[in-house]
Design goal:
Shape: elongated
Distance between the termini: 37 Å
Number of helices: 5
Helix content: over 70%
Largest sheet: none
Strand content: under 5%
Structural class: mainly alpha
Order of helices and strands: HHHHH
């Protein structure tokens, strides 16, 4: 059973890291073609669609990682590796480092919030009610 949990953890961490790398490569393309942002064209639309796809991939994989990776420090490490992958795909300068650090911090707060929400959930079962009432 322990190996199944390890495989699950590795798979979801790799998905988050791959999504981070994908977002970093899209951000690198945008930074190389920033002059296209001021002239509407099909290339601008294509870049915007790729950016939306990368953001969607990050949102989905971050949500899965935040819910399914336990203990919490494992998820923090997965977000840290995802941030490093994003930085490797993007050029390293002060702006990219600041944005990747912001991504990492938001990921940590999001993960902590999801974990806190999962702990506070009320689990409801009809078993105690049915045990007390024989006609159910």
């Amino acid at each position: 059973m322990k190996s199944v949990k390890l495989v699950k953890t590795v798979i979801f961490a790799l998905l988050l890291i791959a999504a981070g790398y994908f977002l970093g490569s899209i951000c690198d393309q945008i930074s190389q073609r920033y002059n296209l942002l001021f002239s509407p064209s099909m290339q601008t639309l294509s870049l915007a669609l790729w950016l939306l796809g990368a953001l969607f991939a990050i949102a989905v994989t971050a949500g899965l990682a935040a819910v399914l990776l336990r203990p919490l420090w494992v998820c923090f490490i997965a977000f840290a590796l995802s941030a490093v992958a994003m930085l490797l795909a993007w050029e390293v300068n002060i702006i990219s480092v600041a944005l990747v650090l912001l991504y990492f911090l938001v990921g940590l707060f999001y993960t902590r919030g999801v974990a806190k929400g999962l702990e506070e959930r009320i689990s409801f079962s009809v078993r105690p009610i049915s045990d007390n009432q024989t006609f159910l």
